[in-house]
Specification:
- This protein is about 5% helix and about 50% strand.
- It is mainly beta.
- Strands 1, 2, 3, 4, 5, 6, 7 and 8 form an 8-stranded mixed β-sheet that branches.
- A hairpin with a 4-residue loop joins strand 5 and strand 6.
């Protein structure tokens, strides 16, 4: 199964949350007991890209819900406007890419 594509647009200073429900082929929730997750934002997909942000990933094992969050304080301090990300989970063996896409921050004007 390939990663779902979610392109995110958010206000600078706002919290970015990306919830992804991981399910089995029959639609039931996957049991993610023992899984960990990681989500990063990079300037591009090339090898020498800059790391722009790292999200906190919380997994609710019994329901198969994975949520990547970038705090509003981090987006407020960001000097970047756009990047690419992926959200990965693993049980310690093979990583599974469950979401990917672009992130665009809309700058704030009110200070």
């Amino acid at each position: 199964m390939g990663a779902a594509v979610y392109n995110i647009e958010a206000d600078q200073g706002g919290t970015i949350e990306l919830p992804v429900a991981v399910t089995e082929r029959d639609g039931t929730a996957s049991d993610l007991t023992g899984y960990t997750g990681e989500m990063q934002v990079w300037s591009s997909y090339v090898d020498d890209a800059d790391l722009l942000a790292t999200a906190t990933v919380v997994i609710t094992a019994a329901t198969g819900l994975v949520v990547g969050t970038i705090d509003g304080d981090d987006t407020l301090a960001a000097t970047w406007r756009s990047g690419v990300y992926d959200l990965v989970i693993t049980d310690g063996a093979q990583p599974e890419y469950i979401a990917r896409g672009t992130i665009r921050l809309r700058p704030t004007v009110t200070r």
